[in-house]
Amino acid sequence: MEIVLSGIRSTGNLHLGNYYGAVRNFVKMQHNYNCYFFIADLHSLTTHPKPGDWKANVKQILCEYLAAGIDPEVATIYVQSDIPEIAELYLILNMLAYKGELERTTSFKDKVRQNPDNVNAGLLTYPVLMAADILIHRANKVPVGKDQEQHLEMTRNFASRFNNMYGNDFFPLPTAFNFGSDLIKIPGLDGTGKMGKSDGNGIYLADDAKTVEKKVMRAVTDSGPTHKGQKMPEPIRNIFTILEVVSEPDVVKYFKEQYHECTIRYGDLKKQLAKDINLSIDPIRERIKQYLSDDAYLRKVTKMGQEKARESAIKTLKGVREIIGITGF
Ligand code: TRP
Fold first, then answer.
1. Which atom of ligand 1 is nearest to the CA of 9?
2. 157, 196, 184: which is closest to 173 by C-alpha?
3. Dist. CA 6 → ligand 1 center (Å)
4. Is there a catalytic annotation at residue 55?
């Protein structure tokens, strides 16, 4: 069975875009592939978070993924820092990564521009740690967004460099997993583009009903259609796109007709949208709360994930050591 691996940032909670986009596909995928989902907490050390923040961040993300339907009995869900073999593979891969190519990485250049006072080596070698995450399970497929494609390409480069250097094909070259038409793109509420982390544009699974309502009521619209059958401009189309995901078809049809007849009241549309978003995420919100209050269960899940992930990681690292010639006496 093909191995699929996905890394999840340990900062940044799930928003509707993540949920209806990648995460729902992960939930389906776990039954068809050997899936590893891990929380990339070591990557977040590049920004030097406070010690107390670690637990809250990792816990929140873990609970959100469980609540969204990742089944720890089916997939392997684990925390990166629970697998010491990743750090060792990272060290080994660092010997195959060139300073020049790391400096040319788009994400690195962006970070340098944003934080010129914190250009640490961890930031420079971020793609090497990501390669270690992927190669430690010799994964075949990695679901990534556009912003991570360059990192995946670098992973392939490191892997094939290793294979060539030692004359074997130990590491498969991982490719991007594309959900194709299964990937629903949720637009933001600020009128343009997709839902992201920027303020005012995202609705989070952890938001309470009131917050959802407030955010939806603030969504960008226009002064309304002026003639029948008018084409929708982007901000209005975006609202309808979300409505189509969370509401019943007859509700969508009703408001579309109202728009085309120029009788639409955006206030009503938004109230309906807020109500239906809340209905659709209520059960997830409930489950997130339950998981958050059950440390014993979370301990069990992370321990089980660690055991499964380490079994595969230890196997890979043993192979790597043998190939390099670290074999003892
Ligand atoms: N860099 C990824 C992001 O920012 C997270 C990540 C870390 C990852 N390691 C990974 C993703 C390995 C896929 C595979 O979203």
1. 5
2. 157
3. 7
4. no
- CA 132 to centroid of ligand 1, rounded, Å: 11
* Structural domains in the chain, sorted by start: 3-184+295-324 (3.40.50.620), 209-289 (1.10.240.10)
Active site residue 253: no
Can you say how many angstroms the Cα of residue 294 is from the centroid of all Cα atoms in its chain? 24
Among 109, 146, 197, 318, the active-site one is 197
pLDDT of 200 over the 70 cut: no
Q: Looking at 50-64, 135-149, 192-206, 245-259, which range is the least confident one?
A: 192-206
Q: Is the CB of 131 under 6 A from ligand 1?
A: no
Q: Full-prediction pTM beyond 0.70?
A: yes
31-40, 43-52, 179-188, 234-243 — which is least confidently predicted? 179-188
- Closest ligand 1 atom to Cα of 139: 14
Strand order across the beta sheet in which 141-142 lies = 76-79, 34-40, 3-9, 141-142, 175-176
User: What confidence score (pLDDT) does residue 184 get?
Assistant: 86
Atom 8 of ligand 1, nearest CA residue: 7
Buried b (16+ CB within 10 A) or exposed e, 93-104: bbebbeeeebee
Q: Higher-confidence residue: 145 or 150?
A: 150
